[in-house]
Amino acid sequence: MPGRVTVRLFATARVAVGASQLRIRVDPDGVTAKSLIDSLGKHYPKLAPALRTSRFVLNERYLTRLTNKVRPGDEFAVHPPYGGG
To answer: Of 1, 43, 68, 72, which residue is the least packed, with the fewest Cβ within 10 Å?
Structure first.
C-alpha cells in the first residue's frame, strides 16, 4: 500500500505550484530523490525550471546525492535560489 511524502515548496517553487505543500504518493519502499524530482517536474511543468537550480532537503538535512531514498512519512523540501536583502 503506497504512503505519502510531504513536499514543502519555498519561494518561486511555491509560486509555480500555487501551494506551499503537497502530499505525494510513493511506494512503501520509497523512491530516489531524483525520481521524486522528475515526477514533480512532470506533474507541475511550471515548477520544472525552478527544480533545475534548487537545493533539496530530506527530513531537515540537505541532500548531497539524489540517489537517497524518500520514503512514506518523510518530508522533502524544495529550496530554489532566494534573492533579496
So the answer is: 1
